[in-house]
Amino acid sequence: MVRFATPRCVATSLATLITLLGANSAAAATADIGAVAEVRSGQAPSAITSGGFAVQIAQATGNYAVPPGYTTITAWSHSAGTTAGVLTFKVYRPTGGLREFTVVASDTRSVTAGAVQTFPVRIAVLPGDRIGLSSDDVELAFETFSAGDRIGFFGAELPVGATGATDGEPFPEYKLDVAATLSDGAQPGTGAPAGTPAPAPGPAPGPGAQPALPPPVLQRLTLAPRAFAAARSGASTRAARLRRQGAKVTVRVDRAATVLFTVQRVAAGRRTGRGSAARCAAPSRRNRGAPRCTRYVAVRGSFSRAVRAGESSFHFTGRVGDRTLARGSYRLMATPTANGVSGRSLTRRFRIGR
Q1: Domains of the chain by range and CATH?
Q2: What's the start-to-end Cα distance of the chain, in Å?
Q3: Please, what sign has the CA dihedral across residues 174, 35, 153, 81?
Q4: Cis previous bond, 336, omega within 30
Q5: What is the dihedral sign for C-alpha 169, 173, 174, 179?
Q6: Is the overall model pTM greater than 0.85, yes or no?
Q7: pLDDT tens digits, one per residue of 279-329
Q8: Do the Cβ atoms of 236 and 257 come closer than 8 Å?
Q9: Is 14 helix (H, G, I), strand (E, B) or coil?
């Protein structure tokens, strides 16, 4: 039997619908900062910007700083160039000193060449916080030819909680190859008003303060033996060592964490540029008279291990990204991550023989 709605039922249904619409209207407001247009279009960064520890000091257009009304970074993106490798997204908080910042958060990822990649995160921020990038070899910036775009370079990698100033005058006419998505923290369907902070473990740290959740500490990284033959097939890791192939890797961390492992090939280079623009470039006829240096070229691919607090071991087969490493010198880089926060990396050299 078909039943028609009475006026009272219709009123009740309308009230329910209005309530649901009101709840949905509390969805979080979002905004994007950084090189938004360049990253979205997949623009390739400049080939001469490989490696460095950088923060965008100023920009001719757009914004690299968190505007008022936003409390959380929910994702960051990078348009990779020709070099794959390990890339760290960082949030820097100005201290008020001359070009001085405190690192309040970081997120380390392995990026592949020639692709736009987006990584979900949940990082509590304050208005004025600036975004930056760190890498040993990945291309970091777009050339804009605008003096209003200026990048500051740190002399060394700063861990979360550390404070430091960029070296010398900011480098002009470049903008960092990074974009971030911001949220005002409202939770969809909860009725939380815009501007309500997202749930977080403790209050957001103030300028110069330690974060509520410090990064994990990788206390030890060893390989034994340091020279070995690579396996011809199989995965990057095994529970037991293959006969005369691979090496035992031992890590020690201060808490349970996921450790990302990447490999870099050791190559000859020539030191070019000065100051913050100095880098170790591939040898060429043009720079053959420059001082020699050692380059580390990222090998495509990575692998990770979930490890407990204390010491853990596994066997590395000498294969990365479904490929067997060719004979030569390399270094293994390990980066720990826990609770969405990455700690400082450690590296160890090794050699692949027959």
Answers
A1: 30-183 (no CATH), 218-353 (2.60.40.2550)
A2: 82
A3: negative
A4: no
A5: positive
A6: no
A7: 788 888 888 888 988 888 888 888 888 888 899 999 999 999 889 999 999
A8: no
A9: helix
